[in-house]
């Protein structure tokens, strides 16, 4: 069965190239004709691994093509995902499966509601990749991907295809805990790297801010029934700061490139949940306000 991949960014390229290299049929979905022509001029997707460039020619089409879709991997940004899925809905059937690989929380639930009863599988990845240029991605570090369906614990048959493609993965019945854990870690690191305009490792210089954030995020996770995600949160955040010390966070990279961030699905989602739980988290909310002002001052969207 064909893997339709929506989005040719870092994770979309990483999955598409490895799946195609393993002999699985892959079809890229690009947003419009201009993007498709740019892709065709590039000659395919390039993946840089260990200093070596691998060019993979993968079939591509625009989002408004007519071909039915049975298996769809959605790797576009969270703020684009819902609109893209509305456009693709006519190409799906009740037997289709959609794998959602977005940062943060919120877009997954919106899409699952929009597509019901189509099966939506949520995914959370620690794979390291960044886009060097259009259709060229650097594989920065091997990671792991968790997949799960909050409404159906049965694993899909195609997990074996991920194994054959060298995509380290695990099916879990606790995918929401994984997503909440990653959201909390991102909320503790990404906004501070933007506001201090620094690499992850430089957050060592702001221990009080990191500690306050981790404390409030732990309270939020417990209030949302995510005790598993809350365990040793600050220890994990500090470990990741050290392990990725030389890296810039994805949000910091977005801001430095004058691109829209996923603030609404990270810090914005956390603050909305705190409000819904009637849980006062003054430092988290103040950080959200600071970040919004910072983005607006640079002419960037704050939603």
Give a topology summary.
Elements: E1 3-6, H1 10-21, E2 26-30, H2 33-42, E3 45-49, E4 52-56, E5 59-62, E6 69-74, H3 78-88, E7 92-100, H4 107-115, E8 119-125, E9 128-133, E10 136-141, E11 145-148, H5 159-164, E12 169-171, H6 175-195, H7 207-223, H8 227-230, H9 233-243, H10 250-256, H11 267-276, H12 282-297
Helix pairs in contact: 3-4, 6-7, 6-9, 6-10, 6-12
Q: What's the short version?
A:
The chain has 303 residues and is an alpha/beta fold.
Task: Specify the helix fraction band.
Answer: 40-55%
- Average pLDDT rating: 95
Residue runs with pLDDT of under 50 for 5 or more positions: none
Oligomer: single chain
Overall spatial form: globular
Radius of gyration, CA atoms, in whole angstroms: 19 Å
Summed up, the domain count is 2
Following the backbone from N to C, one meets helices and strands in this order, namely: EHEHEEEEHEHEEEEHEHHHHHHH
The CATH fourth-level homologous superfamily of the largest domain:
NAD(P)-binding Rossmann-like Domain
Please, could you describe this protein's structure?
- This protein has 303 residues and is α/β, with parallel strands linked by helices.
- It has 12 helices and 12 strands.
- It has helices spanning 10-21, 33-42, 78-88, 107-115, 159-164, 175-195, 207-223, 227-230, 233-243, 250-256, 267-276, 282-297; strands spanning 3-6, 26-30, 45-49, 52-56, 59-62, 69-74, 92-100, 119-125, 128-133, 136-141, 145-148, 169-171.
- The strands form 2 sheets. An 8-stranded mixed sheet has the order 5-2-1-6-7-8-11-12, sandwiched between helices. The chain has a 4-stranded mixed sheet with strand order 4-3-10-9, covered by helices on one side.
- Strand 7, helix 4 (107-115) and strand 8 form a beta-alpha-beta unit.
- Helix 6 (175-195) packs across helix 12 (282-297).
